[in-house]
Amino acid sequence: MNDATHEDHFAACAPDVRRRLSAIQVEVQRRIPDATPCIAYRMPAFRRGKVFFYFAGFKRHIGIYPPLNAPADLVAKLGPYRGPKGNLTFPHAAPLPLDLIGEVAEALASAYGRPDGK
């Protein structure tokens, strides 16, 4: 069993990246209070029955997974951040759009998470 925590992963990052990852963690917890922090695919993640939100810090950006395909208005707002496979990339050199990331978390929780926790 892997006992790693989000904070273990954050500790391996540069301080500025650590702050950005922590801000995302807080935003997801604020928006989906019944989500449980976990580690999945060696990344910090959140589950609500199933894992619905993964995020990780890289050298030049923060990535958020899995790709979001609906609702269309939110997908349109994500255009500047979408990679070729639809995963989201938020460059460290740009401000972090926490409100938008929170909307993504809510949409992913709705699409993949199970409110009953099973």
Task: Write a brief structural summary.
With 118 residues, the chain is α+β, with helices and mostly antiparallel strands. The chain has helices spanning 6-11, 15-31, 72-77, 98-112, and strands at residues 36-40, 43-48, 50-57, 61-65, 88-91. Helix content is 37%, strand content 24%.
Describe the fold and architecture.
The structure is a single chain. The protein is built from four helices and five strands, in the order ααββββαβα. The radius of gyration is 13 Å and the shape is globular. Strands 1-2-3-4-5 form a five-stranded antiparallel β-sheet. Helix content is 37%, strand content 24%. The protein has 118 residues and is an alpha+beta fold.
Which structural class is indicated by helix and strand composition?
alpha+beta
- Give the overall form: globular
What's the count of strands?
A: 5
Helical residue percent band: 25-40%
Helix and strand topology:
Layout (H helix, E strand, L loop, with lengths): L5 H6 L3 H17 L4 E5 L2 E6 L1 E8 L3 E5 L6 H6 L10 E4 L6 H15 L6
Short descriptors:
five-stranded antiparallel beta sheet, 4 helices, 118 residues, globular, alpha+beta
